[in-house]
Amino acid sequence: MKKVTFYLMMMVLSLSFVPNQVLAAEKNPTAISNNPKEVPAEVKVMLDRLEEIKAMDKSDLSSAEKKELRKEVRTIKADLKSSGNGVYLSVGAIIIIILLLILLL
Questions:
Q1: What mean pLDDT do residues 43-60 have?
Q2: Percent of the chain with pLDDT over 90
Q3: What is the pLDDT of residue 21?
Q4: Mean pLDDT, the chain, as a whole number?
Q5: What pairs with residue 87 in β-bridges?
Q6: What is the per-residue pLDDT across 67-90, written as a single tens digit (0 to 9) for each?
Q7: Residue 51: which residues within 8 A CB-CB, separation 6 or more?
Q8: Does the pLDDT at position 17 exceed 90?
Q9: Measured between alpha carbons, how far is 77 from 54 in angstroms, rounded to an integer?
């Protein structure tokens, strides 16, 4: 009976510390461009495109063109953020791992 309560306590404690996302990425993606040796080619192309869009004169563009540019900037930023190589674990995967550890130990 003591083992069952111990296992239940360990399970509750381990499930209480569930990280949503473990991601080690810089907040400013343009700071990466200072070291061109470490930046992959596709990331450099995306950063250059962002800088090109920022430098554009948008006053003579139509509203549809501006909307396309905003959409392009959002997709580029999402791609840059997803290239941070984060580690994601779902709650179901964590529960299965814990159950396997309990059964094996």
A1: 89
A2: 17
A3: 55
A4: 78
A5: 22
A6: 999 999 999 888 888 776 556 678
A7: 30
A8: no
A9: 13
**Alpha carbon of residue 88 to chain centroid:** 9
The DSSP code sequence of the chain is -HHHHHHHHHHHHHHH---S-B----S-GGGGGG-TTTS-HHHHHHHHHHHHHHHS--TTS-HHHHHHHHHHHHHHHHHHHHTT--B---HHHHHHHHHHHHHH-
Q: Give the total residue count for the chain.
A: 105
Confidence (pTM): 0.44
| Spatial distance between the Cα atoms of 46 and 52, rounded to a whole number of angstroms | 10
Query: What amino acid occupies position 18?
Result: V
In angstroms, the Cα distances linking 22 to 4, 75, 80, 85 are 31, 22, 16, 10
Please give the Cα distance from 37 to 39 (Å, whole number): 6
Rg of the chain taking only CA atoms, in angstroms: 23
